[in-house]
């Protein structure tokens, strides 16, 4: 069985390879464009949620309360794109970066063009010919591996159930 740890390791290897060959790669600290333009509420498997929940539980209560407000607003927001409810708006940082879901780990390094899942800033560089040597990861393969880990649910549902049970 494919474990989440193994999947993270495989994604990290591709990310490290791309960054190693392109030290000026756009995805990195300070870039939060994808976090501010989500196509939908992130979907997580239970095992991803369990890891993310560990990171959330370690946050200060006031930060967790802010996230709870953002989750509630997101759950009822009819329009898209959406902003990740975990994003620190002022710094653009993720407070649970080490526990982030697979979708966050792979974005910008794996592509799923038919679903519009790619970074438009990186796509511009590709169009200009700057990244012709990059071997992109196939996000369809990531989705297949995630499916083997169990059913996915929206982040807002996982969070609401956790809040209700705490």
Structure commentary:
- This is YkgJ family cysteine cluster protein.
- It holds the Pfam family CxxCxxCC.
- The chain contains eight helices and four strands, in the order ααβαααβαβαβα.
- With 166 residues, the protein is mainly alpha-helical.
- α4 crosses α8 (155-165).
- The longest helix has 18 residues, at 4-21.
- It is globular and about 50 Å long.
- The model has no long low-confidence stretch (mean pLDDT 87).
Instruction: For the record, give the distance between the C-alpha atoms at the N and C termini, rounded to a whole number.
Output: 31 Å
What is the overall pLDDT average? 87
Provide the number of structural domains. Answer: 1
Structural class: mainly alpha
What strand line-up does the widest sheet have? 1-4
How many β-strand stretches? Answer: 4
Rg: 16 Å
Provide the succession of SSEs: HHEHHHEHEHEH
Gross morphology: globular
Structure annotation, total helices: 8
Spans where pLDDT lies below 50 across 5 or more residues: none
Proportion of strand residues: 5-15%
How much helical structure, as a percent, in the residues? 40-55%
Main beta sheet: strand number and arrangement? 2 strands, antiparallel
Protein name: YkgJ family cysteine cluster protein
Organism: Candidatus Proximibacter danicus
InterPro entries: Puta_zinc/iron-chelating_dom (IPR005358)
């Amino acid at each position: 069985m494919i474990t989440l740890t193994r999947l993270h390791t495989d994604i990290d290897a591709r990310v490290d390879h791309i960054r190693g060959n392109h030290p000026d790669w756009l995805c990195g600290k300070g870039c939060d464009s994808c976090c501010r333009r989500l196509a939908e509420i992130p979907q997580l498997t239970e095992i991803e949620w369990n890891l993310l929940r560990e990171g959330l539980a370690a946050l200060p209560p006031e930060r967790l309360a802010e996230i709870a407000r953002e989750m509630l607003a997101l759950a009822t927001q009819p329009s898209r794109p959406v902003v990740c409810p975990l994003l620190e708006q002022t710094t653009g940082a993720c407070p649970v970066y080490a526990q982030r879901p697979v979708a966050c780990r792979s974005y910008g390094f794996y592509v799923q063009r038919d679903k519009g899942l790619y970074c438009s800033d990186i796509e511009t560089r590709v169009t200009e010919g700057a990244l012709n040597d990059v071997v992109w990861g196939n996000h369809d393969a990531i989705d297949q591996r995630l499916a083997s880990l169990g059913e996915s649910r929206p982040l807002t549902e996982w969070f609401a159930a956790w809040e209700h049970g705490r």
